[in-house]
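A protein record in our archive is deliberately plain, so that people and models can read it alike. The record that follows is passed on verbatim for readers who wish to inspect the format.
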Amino acid sequence: MTQDNQRGFGLNRRDALVGLAAVTGVVATGAGGLAVASDWLGPPRLTAARFTDRFEQLYGRHDGFRRNHAKGVAATGTFTSTGAATEVSRASVFRSGTVPVIARFSLSGTLPDQNDQPATVRGLGVLFQTSDGQQWRTAMVNIPVFPDSTPRGFYDRMLASKPDPKTGKPDPAAMSAFLAAHPETAAAMKVIKAAPPSAGFADSTFWGLNAFLATAENGHTTPIRWSLIPAQQATTSAQGDDFLFDALIEQVQRGPVSWRLVLTLGQPGDPTRDATLGWPADRRTVEAGVLTIDRLATEAPGNARDINFDPLVLPDGLAASDDPLPRARSAVYAQSFNRRAREPKSPSEVDVEEVIHDEH
């Protein structure tokens, strides 16, 4: 891979390039993607297909891989609920007990063989499978706010971020003009830059970014956001092109890695339709449970490779808010999935040679 090809294709805090909305690939089954895959995402004539086309036109097409967050590794584990979140949501995943999860760790960007860089945005997609047959799918990243408030803003930032073939970097004038027209993005980028990345995947905090609505058994609805808080430090001596993934593999070899799932409860007046804006730090939180990953695997048929982490696949008790981004993500994810499902598959860059950890 040339140096030019290594640069400009992954979202990082310094450049805030494209890639957050399509955090992981997606499924053509499930509630969200198919329902909105043909919808307009915004004027003029911005569709999910056109959005996905732009990823391919600007950043290349790589058959069989997600159009964004192409580099990744599959994982499985469990979620053990504390039962505390039943106060705000009747979703069965929050009842006391343990359910299986399928997950995927990834890096923002369209190159499935890109070199790992500390500043590249890291993703974690999780599918919670409950005993009553419902699913909850969520795609999170390790930055505290999203750079754009609307699908159109994200699309326009993609254009402004188009790499110059000679430098591999965006045109500074184009990005400056975009930021002048989008002060919300300029403000969000300052927040992102103020939150430096951790050493690796294992000690990253992952944010859901968007607001959702939680409804309790008594019918009361509360706006919420969620995050995963790491229970361990990242420790590794890994080096090389895949050092972030190799470090995670080494850590899981030594034992499971865990995150606390924390729900943040919104109050009247807190923004629910603008992911560039965080909520006040004094908002009440609920410890919903612990996500534990005890196994990693090379992406292959039947594991996380083929899962669409559609943000609109939600269990009863959770629902979308008025934020326009999850609906756009759902539609673009479906486009990405449907395209890559029909394409030949190439080997994953991240190769896990054996089951990493199994306590059973």
